[in-house]
Amino acid sequence: MAGALQKNPEKTTMPLRNLFTPSTFHWVRAVALCLTGLSLLPGHHAKAQNTAIAYAYPVGKLTVDGDLSDWPKGLTKYRLTEDNGIKPKSAADFTAHYRVAYDPDNRSVYVGVEVTDDDHVVDTTKSPAWNTQDCHELYVDARHLPFGSGVAAFMLSKTFRDTNKMLSDPVSAAYSWDNIEARTVRQGNLTTYEWRVDLGEHVYPGRSIGLDLNVFDKDNDGFKVIGWGRGGYKFRTPAHLGDVVLMRANEGLGTLGGKVRWKEAWAQKLPGRVRLTSVKTPALWVDAKVDSLGRYTVQLPPGTYRVSTPGHLVQDKETVYRVNNETLAEVTLKAGEKKAVTAVGLITRSSPPDLVPQQGILHAFDAGKARQLDQFVAAYQQFYEIPGVSLALVKDGKVVYHKTYGVENSLTREKVEDNTLFEAASITKAVFAYVVNRLAERGVIDLDKPLYQYLPFEAMAHDDRYKLITARHVLSHRTGFPNWAYMNADGKLDIKFTPGTQYGYSGEGFEYLKRVVVHITGKDILQVLKEEVTGPMKMYNVHFSKNDELAKVASYGHYDNVPTTQYIPGEPGMAHSMYTEAKGFSQFMLGLLSGQGQQPDTYTRMLTMHSEFPREKGEKKPRYKSGMGLGIAVRESPYGPVFGHGGNNGDFQCDFEVYKDLKMGYAIFTNSNYGGQLCGQMKALLVEGKEEVAQK
């Protein structure tokens, strides 16, 4: 689907089964699910493969006035056919096509869009918006790097202009309306949008750029969207843009066809695309669609091309495999020629690293084990394309190893430093839970007193069951609230079961408890955190909401190795908003291990299992129990009790665990949607070794 534009979405997530190995699933499935955003981004992880291709020929300077009569005759008109699920009633109701050309002299790309629509809406209020009227958005990726680069998006209507751009890429971040000429004109049932986009040094013949467009139709029968290529959220996902080849004057096209299949039998669908890259000019590349039988056909300028499969990850049951980026063929094509690649391209895959030792390396940690650890992290980073990692190991009351790996931004390649901060996601809950347990110990809050008696929850007044909810229910995830209200079809908060009767992971519960704590203490939540936990435990490099210092050191998150829009919450959220790094956070781990700041009864109560994680249908009973204490996740292990918490904000994934009897543990933070694959192996690498050994 084209994907309706959504302004400033925050976070999304993958299903937990896509993030962690089977051996860690019980431990993390309920504690790592953060979903901090207000909007789920549908299709973001579906790896929508655009495969739309257009061909732009050089033209002289065109006048951008909304009149396309000065455009050269005979240019191809590309129809917009990808919709958001709301189909136009007829061609008169809503159809669109576009033309594209470029001027190498003024280094600009021209786009002319014509929309037929029998019901055109213009927002003439003082505050027009993108979704209150008919409008159009153009997306451009000037660098068009094979592994992804920044997108700049420009939205236009009669009364509205807006910009969306990936600030993680200096090139896209620099684009503004100063680079744009644009005009829209309405005549009868036809609306024309005309653009000139100055792309500077990135415009020259014999290369390709990324480009796409959506048109939005505000009618009485719904808000319709049609786009050129497949994939939503184009303003932040370069893989969801089509390819535009900048042709030379009078240059012809040849047609190339071929077929691919898996080298080894595999039930997985074939990749939806192959990539064709010019051997002479690698900046010329396009993705061609592969059908269900493995066939592809594509038109290209004359030249020699490398046919390959873009490397990517594929989930098959509990295992994530890598489809290898390999050359399937190399072929020379002439203008006007129709050529078939005779040999079938054989697509291969790689299995994930298998580097877990027989015994955990933290038991007798030395310089050799440190090198083994570094090699392990590097192998996982390479396989899963995890840009950055912050890791700390604790043992016998101190940090015995700390290291950062990789980059905080895959496009700029800025390194992760000791003070680079990662979203800690749901690990925030563990820090806040410690605070609540401290307050309960002093009688500031009663864990078993209904929270409404402290502070009514007006939005839930329609359901008296909410009056049963206590702080103990919140900390043990037994409130009955969903994780987040927006996950409900109507976006409203409700109660799924009678509070206290079963387990149900919920961030909403923690946010309600935060408001209660603020109310009964009469203090800002940041002050409470400083007084109760970050100050006493001497935690450093930790922030809970937006500030100037954090903005300078916050890492970018990544989906499929492409940086996401950086979102730092303006208000602290006790379910999700902490930023930190492994060494600074290890102070909290060491404090928990020693029982700092708590009476023995409080400490024991916090780390006692109050809710066992439920098994899914058909799932075998685990060898060791795992569940939730009072805000801290707990589990049994071959080495005694373990406590910790995981975190998953989608593009940031992290985990910490402490083995109570062994007095050792680890904290790991990553800036990738596949970081959980590395986090999930830490317990085996560092402490428990191969699972079959641990079970003896």
UniProtKB/TrEMBL annotation:
Q: Could you give a single Gene Ontology term from the biological process aspect?
A: carbohydrate catabolic process
InterPro entries (UniProt xref): Beta-lactam-related, Beta-lactam/transpept-like, Carb-bd_dom_fam9, Diverse_Enzym_Activities
Beta-lactamase-related domain boundaries: 373-675
| Pfam families from the UniProt entry | Beta-lactamase, CBM9_1
- One GO MF term, please? carbohydrate binding
Q: The organism sits in which domain of life?
A: Bacteria
Query: What region holds the Carbohydrate-binding domain?
Result: 84-247
Q: What PANTHER family does the entry give?
A: BETA-LACTAMASE-RELATED, PTHR43283:SF18
Q: What is this protein called?
A: Uncharacterized protein
